[in-house]
From TrEMBL, chain C:
Protein name: Hydrogenase expression/formation protein HypE
NCBIfam families referenced in this protein's UniProt entry, alphabetically: hypE
GO biological process: one example: protein maturation
Cited InterPro entries: HypE (IPR011854), PurM-like_C_dom (IPR010918), PurM-like_C_sf (IPR036676), PurM-like_N (IPR016188), PurM-like_N_sf (IPR036921)
PANTHER family: CARBAMOYL DEHYDRATASE HYPE, HYDROGENASE ISOENZYMES FORMATION PROTEIN HYPE
Residue span, PurM-like C-terminal domain: 154-302
Family, per entry: Belongs to the HypE family.
Domain PurM-like N-terminal: 36-144
Gene3D superfamilies, alphabetized: PurM-like C-terminal domain, PurM-like, N-terminal domain
Organism taxonomic ancestry: Bacteria, Bacteria division WOR-3
Length: 360, 71, 325
């Protein structure tokens, strides 16, 4: 596999592991990644086990499904129960528990819920089945938002009257600020998400070293990429020169993808958004812009839900801030397991708890 | 939400392309990367090409980052 | 659990939970509680399986070939020579007879190729919409030729597989065309008697065919609390095409279904001979030693990664939906 195999090559990896283990720190160093795909990769390749002593890998709120509060799931379920509605979603959302049910359970009870690989697939379905109302669950960060924006734009161009989204996309920069500003959270370096950065550009994060003095490295997802990211951060710490270094050279540019950013800006506007575990963060979510508001399902139907509830004892919130390692949650592995998940962190394929449970 | 795969464009039809990765082919939207052409390698996420790949392999990347003092 | 979910049929943890909560509750603690692929009585083995694959025809096979190979392979994995089979068909009203003939011929060709005789069967027709084309149940009967038991597995034994993994599950996903992907991947669906028969004289401790839930499921089912299994990430045979499609869909190839793969636990002394024998057969040309039985990990399956670290290979959950993020 081109562009993948070379970054899993054992000779390259060995050289990088050696470099990494040459670092030595007397006090704890916390490196936080904020991308579910990084979480999975790190655990799948056991990269957290080759970090030098005192250096800890911490998972932050990088899994968009995990940070989506129960209320969103409850609304999706309410929509699924409506006559003539088809819910289209990325696969991750299917098993996530809402307050009282899940999309998987609703599907078992007869709701029409379909997993799609791309929002464009949902659009095609809507075109082919004009008698049904299609709602796409718009979840994801800046990697996914432009594609959803482009899909909504296409829906408008086609004059489709049966395609909607339930807005739920979130953006990273404000969440990163909220984490850094949180006195409980101690972060000494950020491993920045490679594909979010492909869209927004590495320049987007300059405020982190400039305003807060925290080193950052943008990194890809193969083991060699992640090792290079860790090395870059540790080097910045040792040399006392925090900045944003790009180690994902093949994909990330300082300015990102300008076309994608423009489409996002045209279709979406920033709004306040609730992040599980952190609370409401201003300007961290994406709502539809005035020209596209007709595609927001909340404007078309009244969605009635009961008061959302969280499972008592679930520490997803703290796990998402990196304050607590999954095994430290009292429910981990006992009440909360991948086959009987209580919180999103365990059921999402990119959740921190799921990664710990599945890969160790 | 970052699962992206490096695919090669084998055919372009309007604003979409037929892309290939290790034997699997899929139609991919070029709405976010209108300048992409046949032969380009692109990162594909959720059915969209999001960036053209710079053909630097691991050894080259390692060398460049080392020279720049980044790693 | 109050409602059956699709994930209960996935072959992983949810299936296990269903078996324990519903079936073992009623049928008790005898032979059934071993939850083996088949059961032993006198010197015979009996194994039953139902086939509900959708679509009925897929690259590399069809439900008929699958129904025959599946039950044959379960019998073979218990160390028995397959001799007889029964088949029950449930057919949907309106199903084309030409398709039924195709399916029946596939089943017949497969069993005839190894001298297994279909000695009894049953046919039912249900109203349109009440079943998906055709469902088949087959029961295979064989005579034990080799004593195999998971209890004979010891640390130091090696784990061998006869070839490339994850082909069947992906061929089904391709045939369903739910993700718009096209590929040359074909199901590995095949009977394993002709492959395994010449190897039975060796010091094989235990065998199981890897089906739904993939390699991860079958290994986790076997592992005991006294020992563990360490797999080598770079030794597991897998084609570039399968690797690629799994990467695209975010699937772990270890959890994707197979239908022509036998996992064999063999003593260190006979492993080279085993590989040699397997590689002589077309279904075993990519046979490899993929791991070993270890005693520093108990009750778990782990994989040695390319980074040199170990990661847990857990029993898969659910249906393996493709993830996007």
């Amino acid at each position: 596999m081109k562009f993948v195999d070379e970054f899993r090559d054992s000779t390259v990896i060995r050289e990088l592991v050696e470099k990494l283990q040459n670092f030595s720190f007397a006090t704890p160093v916390n490196i936080m990644e904020v991308c579910g795909t990084h979480t999975v990769s790190i655990h799948r390749f056991g990269l957290h086990r080759v970090l030098p002593e005192n250096v800890k890998h911490v998972s932050g709120p990088g899994c968009p499904v995990c940070v989506t509060p129960n209320e969103y799931l409850d609304m999706a379920i309410a929509l699924a129960r409506m006559e003539g509605f088809v819910i289209t979603t990325f696969g991750d959302m299917m098993r996530v528990p809402g307050s009282r049910s899940s999309l998987e359970k609703e599907n078992a009870s007869g709701a029409d819920i379909r997993v799609v690989y791309s929002p464009m697939d949902a659009l095609k379905m809507a075109e082919n089945e004009k008698d049904r109302t299609f709602v796409f669950l718009a979840v994801g960060f800046e990697t996914t938002a432009p594609g959803i924006a482009a899909t909504v734009k296409e829906a408008k161009k086609l004059g489709l009257k049966n395609f909607y989204i339930l807005p739920g996309n979130k953006t990273m920069p404000q969440a990163l600020k909220a984490l850094i500003d949180d006195p409980e959270v101690k972060i000494d370096g950020f491993l920045l998400p490679g594909h979010v950065s492909t869209i927004v550009g590495s320049n987007e994060y300059r405020f982190i070293p400039e305003d807060y003095g925290i080193p950052c490295a943008v990194s890809g997802f193969e083991p060699a990429d992640i090792l290079m990211g860790f090395i870059s951060i540790l080097k910045q710490i040792v040399e006392g020169r925090p900045s944003v270094e790009n180690t994902y050279l093949r994909s990330v540019r300082p300015e990102g993808n300008i076309v994608a950013k423009a489409i996002m800006k045209e279709v979406f506007v920033p709004c306040d958004s609730e992040w599980r575990g952190i609370g409401v963060i201003p300007d961290s979510g994406l709502d539809l812009a005035p020209d596209y508001m007709d595609f927001d399902i909340r404007r078309k139907v009244e969605i009635e839900i009961e008061e959302p509830v969280e499972y008592p004892g679930c520490r997803c919130g703290e796990v998402l801030k990196g304050l607590v390692l999954p095994p430290e949650c009292p429910l981990f592995g006992k009440v909360c397991t991948p086959e009987n998940p209580v919180g999103a962190c365990m059921v999402s394929s990119e959740g921190s708890c799921s990664a710990y449970y599945k890969y160790g | 939400m970052c699962l992206g795969v490096p695919m090669k464009i084998v055919e372009v039809k309007g604003d979409s392309a037929l892309c290939e990765f290790s034997g699997s082919k899929r139609e991919v939207s070029l709405k976010l990367l209108p300048e992409a052409k046949v032969g380009d390698y692109v990162i594909v996420h959720a059915g969209f090409a999001i960036q053209k790949l710079d053909e630097k392999d691991a050894i080259e990347t390692l060398k460049m980052l080392q020279e720049a003092g980044i790693i | 659990m109050d409602k059956i979910l699709l994930s209960h049929g996935g072959g992983g943890k949810k299936t296990q939970a269903l078996l324990k909560e519903v079936f073992l509750q009623s049928f008790g603690a005898g032979e059934l509680s071993k939850l083996d692929d088949g059961a032993i009585f006198d010197s015979y083995v009996i194994s039953t399986d139902s086939y509900v694959v959708n679509p009925l025809f897929f690259p590399g096979g069809d439900i008929g070939k699958l129904a025959a190979s599946g039950s044959i392979n379960d019998v073979v994995s218990m160390g028995a020579e397959p001799l007889y089979m029964s088949a029950g068909f449930i057919i949907e009203e309106g199903f084309p007879v030409s398709d039924l003939k195709r399916i029946v011929k596939s089943l017949a060709d497969t069993i005839k190729s190894i001298g297994v005789e279909l000695i009894t069967g049953d046919t039912k027709v249900v109203e349109k919409g009440k079943c998906d084309g055709v469902y088949i149940n087959t029961t295979g009967i064989g005579r034990i030729v080799k004593e195999l038991s998971a209890e004979r597995i010891r640390p130091g034994n090696l784990v061998v597989i006869n070839g490339n993994i994850a082909e069947h599950g992906l061929s089904i996903l391709l045939a369903r065309n739910e993700y718009g992907i096209s590929s040359e991947i074909k199901s590995d669906c095949m009977e394993l008697w002709t492959l395994i028969r010449p190897a039975l004289e060796l010091d094989i401790r235990f065998m199981r065919d890897a089906t739904r839930g993939g390699l991860a499921a079958v290994l986790n089912e076997v592992v005991s609390s006294d020992w563990g299994i360490e797999l080598y990430q770079d030794k597991i045979p897998i084609s570039e095409e399968v690797k690629g499609m799994c990467e695209m869909l975010g699937l772990d190839p270890l959890t994707v279904a197979n239908e022509g793969k036998m996992v064999i636990f063999v003593s260190e002394d006979d492993v080279e001979k085993l590989i040699e024998i397997l590689r002589k057969h077309p279904g075993g040309k990519n046979a490899e030693v993929i791991g070993r039985v270890v005693d520093d990990v108990k009750g778990r399956v782990v994989e040695k990664t390319v980074v040199g670290t170990r990661r847990i290979v857990d029993m898969p959950v659910g249906e393996g939906l493709p993830r996007i993020c």
